[in-house]
Each structure stands twice: as C-alpha cells, then as structure tokens.
Amino acid sequence: MRRLRELMDTRPVVRVMEAHNGLSGLLVETCAIERNGRREEFDAMWLSSLTDSTAKAHPDIEVVDRTSRANTITEIVEVTTKPIIYDGDTGGITEHFTFLVRRLERLGVSVVIIEDKIGLKKNSLFGTDVSQTQDTIEGFCHKIREGKKAQVTDDFMIFARIESLILNAGIPDALARAKAYIAAGADGIMIHSRQKNGEEIKAFCAEYAKLDRKVPLVAVPTTYNHMTEEELGAIGFKIVIYANHLLRAAYPAMERTARTILENHRSLEVDKECMPIDRILTLIPGGK
Ligand code: SPV
Ligand code: MG
C-alpha cells in the first residue's frame, strides 16, 4: 500500500497500466524492456471500471457490484506485488463509500479515485453525448471528508476526480473544485478530459500550478495520446494512467482469430497469431 507514495516521491512520473483480471495483472507486473541499459516497466496498476466491467460483458455504469470488483482485486493481488489504484466510480452514496474505503484498505489497495458525478454514472469518454450529472462541490467535499475519516491506516489515499472538462463546465469550475476538494482532504486530483489536442489539459495545469495548496495530479491520456509521459510530467502531472489499452488490444486479436476459424473451418490459419502451446503451458508458474 505504501509503495505508491514512495514511487510518487522518487519517480518524475509514475507510470500506470490497467489490469482487469489476474492474467493482465501478471503482465503489468512482469512486462519490462531494456533501453539504453535501463529497465523500463510499469510502476502500478489501474483497476479500471471500464475494463473490469467490459471483461464481464457489462456496461460501465456501476452495475458490476462491489463484491465482484473486490474479487477482481483479490485475483490480481494473489499473483502480483505492484501498487493498485482503484477506479471507485462515484464512490456511491457517502454512507456506502465509507465501507468501500475500509474494504479497499483491507485488500491492500493504495488509492481509490472517485469522480464527482451523481446518479446513473456513464463512462466519461461519452462526454455530453449522454446525460451525466456532476455533484455539487459541497456534496462531493462531504464524501471526501467522510472517506478520509473512515480510513484506518495512514497510507491509504483518496483522490478526487474532476469531471468539469468532460461535462463542458469549463476550467474555472474545474479549478474551484480542485481547491475545494484539496481543502476537504483529497490526497490527489485527477483531471479528466476527452479533448484530443491536449490544450484544455495544458490550460488547466497552468492555472493549477498557481494554487497555494496542491496535491499530486493524475492524467488519463486516452484521447490526447500524442503526449508523452515526459511532456505530461513537464506540465505538472505526477501519475499517468493507460486506462484501457490491454483489453482494447486483446479483444480485436480474439475477434480476428474467431473469424478466421469460422472462415476456414479449422485453426491452422490462426496458429501463427497465437502463442505456442508450450508458452501458454508455462506462462503461469507452478503448473508443471
Ligand atoms: C476507466 O478506466 O474506467 C476510467 C477512465 O474511469 S475513463 O474510461 O477514461 O473514464
Ligand atoms: Mg471508470
């Protein structure tokens, strides 16, 4: 749990990849490359509501219940060691959020990020194409305060996710919320945007930098994906989350394979696309 704080203190940018089951968690745990004599790997895992729900063929509307999402965490922590950042959606109503905090602490999660929306939550990347309602500043501050009171360890963190840019409420609203959420005890701020060119996020960061009281900033560069970790770090981000990429990569590969077998009435043609049987048998340690 504490490792994430250490990484935030020592890394210029903490690099986080989504995981939605034990196998994807194991990949985030072990995947590494060597570049200029240096090892590069992911620092932590994002337990995305989008990929956890999609992997269960459910929409990302908080319909996958907490016990089921907790089972995903358990599945992952049994085979990994890296810190977990949990996508807590809206956190639910405040009275329920306090129980979620305790459960996540017990499971060894480092951070829960909750977003400032109420009612039926839809995925943020829909933006204003669907109806979504932002919580009041007072309402969300109350949730943060109660969550902070509920935690039993000093290591657990609650980050507040601001949806103002997603909902076209503007940068001044986002900043007012950042100030209020920090005052209410948020340990970090996630500012979300679905704009492609990244200008909105840069403008927010320039204003955020002027605040007297700041906490670490989190980016989810799914749409403004031309920006590198270095560029995001330079404008003030401490954590960069690749929120959905492993599942988005896996599904088209599975679909291609299924279609090719349907077309050929055999699997010979897909063999070169699939990992060798030897490899899948030994991919998970302890099977032999
Ligand atoms: C998720 O990964 O579930 C997120 C990030 O909440 S986003 O899908 O961009 O809203
Ligand atoms: Mg989510």
List the helices and strands and how they pair.
Layout: H1 3-10, E1 14-18, H2 22-30, E2 32-35, E3 38-41, E4 44-47, H3 49-55, H4 66-77, E5 84-87, H5 94-107, E6 111-115, E7 117-118, E8 133-134, H6 137-150, E9 157-162, H7 171-183, E10 188-191, H8 199-208, E11 217-219, H9 229-234, E12 237-242, H10 245-264, H11 277-283
Parallel strand pairs: 1-4, 1-12, 4-5, 5-6, 6-9, 9-10, 10-11, 11-12
Antiparallel strand pairs: 2-3, 7-8
Summarize the structure.
A hairpin with a 2-residue loop joins strand 2 (32-35) and strand 3. It is built from eleven helices and twelve strands.
Structure, described:
- With 288 residues, this protein is an alpha/beta fold.
- It has 2 domains: 3-243, TIM Barrel; 251-288, no CATH class.
- The chain contains 11 helices and 12 strands.
- Strands 1-4-5-6-9-10-11-12 form an 8-stranded parallel β-barrel, surrounded by 7 helices. A two-stranded antiparallel ribbon has the order 2-3. It has a two-stranded antiparallel ribbon with strand order 7-8.
- Strand 2 and strand 3 form a beta hairpin.
- The longest helix has 20 residues, at 245-264.
- The chain is globular.
- The two termini are 32 Å apart.
- The model has no long low-confidence stretch (mean pLDDT 97).
- The structure holds sulfopyruvate and magnesium ion.
